[in-house]
Amino acid sequence: MARRAEPPDGGWGWMVVLSAFFQSALVFGVLRSFGVFFVEFVAAFEEQAARVSWIVSIGIAVQQFGSPVGSALSTKFGPRPVVMTGGILAALGMLLASFATSLTHLYLSIGLLSGCGWALTFAPTMACVSCYFSRRRSLATGLALTGVGLSSFAFSPLFQWLLSYYAWRGALILVSALSLHLVACGALLRPLFLADDTAVGGPGAQLNSLLHHGPFLRYTVALTLINTGYFIPYIHLVAHLQDLGWDPLPAAFLLSVAAISDLVGRVASGWLGDAVPGPVARLLMLWNTLTGVFLALFPVAQSSTALVALAVAYGFTSGALTPVVFSVLPELVGTGRIYCGLGLLQMIESLGGLLGAPLSGYLRDVTGNYTASFVVAGAFLLAGSGVLITLPHFFSCFSATISRPQDLVTEPLETKVPLPNEKQED
């Protein structure tokens, strides 16, 4: 384990960013392109949209709810073996799903088993990126998460092509092979030990301080609301377009158009997050509000031109909000608590990921179209923006001190745990 007094803002950190790039592609790139399988599962198992939606929702919820386990294991053993184990589980879940004969099998294989694998990979990798960067943290996070945009652009038409030639069972076997590359991503991670890591206590002390930390708790509420509506287009947009008379391949291609815009948004947001003074939460609120508005407008767009324009706008803002989500957290809790903080955050916001897609599918079954589904999803994001404005220093004047992550660790988290070789003062 490398030991540093402060984040190096480079060096091996760029290899960690490379690992996070491919890891984000193989986790959320797959999840965001899984809407291509949605129509196939509905037809193959003759089930309602709401029940099929639970496949991805369970996977997202398990990934997020199990993140504290991945974080705790990474604290004890380092992120490398944990992420490599997660890659094996993610691939195994997809492989077993290819033999499914009912939705229950898909719930257990993709939702539970692959979800456990994703839980062991995503949070430890992104926490490792945050440990390696301080001044360029938003940019590094943005570059790492561009893997989601690139893979969404590639995976949506690729999965549709695989379905056309190999059917859904053969396609899942090939997705399993792709997921196995998460093992190589984990091998690139080198844990970094920072000077303040010894002063924040063990996992129990960190968890207790976080649960009594008002800004952190409000942030988790905001992200839970955002998470409820964020994934809806990637699950139901293809089905919505087919309801409008689109063929499956052009509908999948529209997701690729959004993915290209998503990629640009992530890089631009990462650069702005480091360049613009003031708390990064302001940028997060801006991007999230625009995303919610564009999401609610999807049912209004009917022509191909309007849908493409809306997909580009939505892709940019939804991609832009992602890097700053991970940049705000170290500003609230500090880098010493990033593993525990990110794991706990992912666990709490899993409630939104679990309920979002089934709620959207239920509204589709009740109303006969996806209008209410997209409007309600946008409303959840706008509600999240309302909570974000309550974070510390949100309305403060722009200043250099506010933009430093170390200065935003609030008082309840400043309790130091004395080292064994320190003498107590009388």
From TrEMBL:
<feature type="transmembrane region" description="Helical">
    <location>
        <begin position="106"/>
        <end position="132"/>
    </location>
</feature>
<comment type="similarity">
    <text>Belongs to the major facilitator superfamily. Monocarboxylate porter (TC 2.A.1.13) family.</text>
</comment>
<feature type="transmembrane region" description="Helical">
    <location>
        <begin position="12"/>
        <end position="31"/>
    </location>
</feature>
<dbReference type="InterPro" id="IPR048233">
    <property type="entry name" value="MFS_MCT_13"/>
</dbReference>
<feature type="transmembrane region" description="Helical">
    <location>
        <begin position="165"/>
        <end position="189"/>
    </location>
</feature>
<keyword id="KW-0472">Membrane</keyword>
<feature type="transmembrane region" description="Helical">
    <location>
        <begin position="338"/>
        <end position="359"/>
    </location>
</feature>
<keyword id="KW-1133">Transmembrane helix</keyword>
<dbReference type="GO" id="GO:0005829">
    <property type="term" value="C:cytosol"/>
</dbReference>
<dbReference type="InterPro" id="IPR050327">
    <property type="entry name" value="Proton-linked_MCT"/>
</dbReference>
<keyword id="KW-0333">Golgi apparatus</keyword>
<dbReference type="GO" id="GO:0008028">
    <property type="term" value="F:monocarboxylic acid transmembrane transporter activity"/>
</dbReference>
<feature type="transmembrane region" description="Helical">
    <location>
        <begin position="306"/>
        <end position="326"/>
    </location>
</feature>
<feature type="transmembrane region" description="Helical">
    <location>
        <begin position="249"/>
        <end position="268"/>
    </location>
</feature>
<keyword id="KW-0812">Transmembrane</keyword>
<feature type="domain" description="Major facilitator superfamily (MFS) profile">
    <location>
        <begin position="13"/>
        <end position="396"/>
    </location>
</feature>
<feature type="transmembrane region" description="Helical">
    <location>
        <begin position="371"/>
        <end position="395"/>
    </location>
</feature>
<dbReference type="InterPro" id="IPR011701">
    <property type="entry name" value="MFS"/>
</dbReference>
<dbReference type="InterPro" id="IPR020846">
    <property type="entry name" value="MFS_dom"/>
</dbReference>
<feature type="transmembrane region" description="Helical">
    <location>
        <begin position="139"/>
        <end position="159"/>
    </location>
</feature>
<comment type="function">
    <text>Proton-linked monocarboxylate transporter. May catalyze the transport of monocarboxylates across the plasma membrane.</text>
</comment>
<protein>
    <recommendedName>
        <fullName>Monocarboxylate transporter 13</fullName>
    </recommendedName>
</protein>
<dbReference type="GO" id="GO:0000139">
    <property type="term" value="C:Golgi membrane"/>
</dbReference>
<dbReference type="GO" id="GO:0005886">
    <property type="term" value="C:plasma membrane"/>
</dbReference>
<feature type="transmembrane region" description="Helical">
    <location>
        <begin position="82"/>
        <end position="100"/>
    </location>
</feature>
<keyword id="KW-1003">Cell membrane</keyword>
<dbReference type="GO" id="GO:0015293">
    <property type="term" value="F:symporter activity"/>
</dbReference>
<feature type="transmembrane region" description="Helical">
    <location>
        <begin position="216"/>
        <end position="237"/>
    </location>
</feature>
<dbReference type="Pfam" id="PF07690">
    <property type="entry name" value="MFS_1"/>
</dbReference>
<keyword id="KW-0813">Transport</keyword>
<dbReference type="InterPro" id="IPR036259">
    <property type="entry name" value="MFS_trans_sf"/>
</dbReference>
<feature type="transmembrane region" description="Helical">
    <location>
        <begin position="280"/>
        <end position="300"/>
    </location>
</feature>
<keyword id="KW-0769">Symport</keyword>
